[in-house]
Amino acid sequence: MNHATGIAAVVVVSLLTVAIGTYGLRISRTTSDFFVASRTVSPALNASAIGGEYLSAASFLGVAGLVLAFGAEMLWYPVGWTAGYLVLLVLVAAPLRRSGAYTLPDFAEARLGSRRVRALTSTLVVGIGWLYLIPQFQGAGLTLRLATGLDARLGGLVVAVVVLVSVLSGGMRSVTFVQAFQYWLKLTALLVPVIFLLIVWLGDGSPSPASPAFDVGGYAGDWADPLAGGVGQSGHPLYTTYSIIVATFLGTMGLPHVVVRFYTNPDGRAARRTTLVVLGLLGLFYILPPIYGALGRVYAGDLVTDGRSDAVVLSLPHRMLGGVAAESLTALLIAGAFAAFLSTSSGLTVAVAGVVSQDVVSRWLPGVAAFRVAAIAAVLIPYGLAVLAADVGVATAVGLAFAVAASTFCPLLVLGIWWRGLTATGALAGLLVGGGLSGAAVVRTFITSGGESWASALLAQPALWTVPTAFLTMIVVSRLTRSRRPPHVATFMVRLHTPEAVRVDRG
């Protein structure tokens, strides 16, 4: 494509992000504004903002690339990412808002009365946040390279700078406005081009992407058949699929930038309403990326052979159309892709910075200043890691973040909210076991290329065995240490499960 068009798209979306973000500076003054927007965000605005930050590089680019390469089996990623909010709605949303916490470590300490649990929770928030930020910078680099021909590392740097300007100016309140705008931009960016691409496809006789004529990577006969032998990321498709389901269904509630959003609602009822709207917005969006993946099978199969399947969304307009139409649609897709990187990165930065500022930087600096210093560290470190881990696929990195979140914070939140028997010792043991096992799998995936053995499959998709292990560890150790239950647990449970309108003693 014309590099000038690509640069213009990146510049426009970046300037709009900065402009909307700096608007928040006018109304963000207090520490509460920076952390949770003073808990005054309406369900409609919050849902759009959640959709904006949740639909990351993996959603915008990675899903289409996975469907292109591996077929119908990969549809479990968008299904699971959406269904994760249904689980969150049922089990977590309202009680978490009623807890009165600012961050996940705040909740852990309030529920269990342990500074050690808080410290470990803070460490995991930072680790998961950084792991999720890495693919955002990678995706930005890929997009900028395709759009402009510039070094991929520059794309991640652009995202880092824009995110810092937005977050440092107004904290959570600024980020809320930015992310709500970016959700609708991303939806438009995928919807408009796909209409034109489908018209071309229909004009070509509607060729089937599962046809042997489009054999790519040896999966032609199995591409449209879920769980077919050999399709997917390992030689054990059934295990891989079930592990993806567990990671995506249960990992959503443990993502730092997702959890912190529910602290911005006025009350528990608003938190539930927000989640319902989010389900609709996510379902609407996730219809689109698989279409790009299927079209890519017909028109861009060589991307799989070249190891560039993540580029299918950005490549299709020029492969199926020509001239001004292709340039215009590609520019729109580039703008949407950059919006995906910016929105998710902003949410993650706020979540990680909130924890780092409270638990580390606040020892030397006051509230807002501590938040801003922490935000700089929250962005620059994962940017450096993204440069080092350039060979890991976008969706793969995000999937691993979900697996770690599901193996740590899911047991902590579910048991902490619904089981009064959870003790600090049990929580510590479960977090260490779940985090240690899933973290080891992440490290192995980042440093090796995988394989077809059972060991490779278990480490590439660890959630199916690490999540039950973490739950079991928390339950068993808590029962063994039942004498150490926090004395305030009964009162805290009342706070979690009683609507705000009911007048009871909340401690």
CATH superfamily: Sodium/glucose cotransporter
In the CATH hierarchy, the third-tier topology is known as Sodium/glucose cotransporter
- What class do helices, strands and sheet pairing give? mainly alpha
Low-confidence stretches: none
Helix content: over 70%
Using the CA coordinates, give the radius of gyration: 22 Å
Cα shape: globular
Q: What is the domain total for the residues?
A: 1
Number of strands: 0
Q: Strand percentage, roughly? A: under 5%
Regarding CATH, which class? Answer: Mainly Alpha
Whole-number average pLDDT? 82
Give a short account of the largest sheet: none
| CA-CA gap between termini | 62 Å
Series of H and E elements: HHHHHHHHHHHHHHHHHHHHHH
What features would you describe in this structure?
- The radius of gyration is 22 Å and the shape is globular.
- It has one domain (3-227, 258-390): Up-down Bundle (Sodium/glucose cotransporter), CATH 1.20.1730.
- It has helices spanning 3-23, 31-36, 43-54, 57-70, 76-91, 93-98, 104-112, 115-148, 152-203, 237-251, 256-262, 268-286, 288-299, 302-305, 312-320, 323-359, 367-388, 394-418, 424-447, 454-460, 463-480, 489-497.
- The mean pLDDT is 82.
- By secondary structure, it is an all-alpha fold.
- The longest helix is centred in the middle third of the chain and has 52 residues, at 152-203.
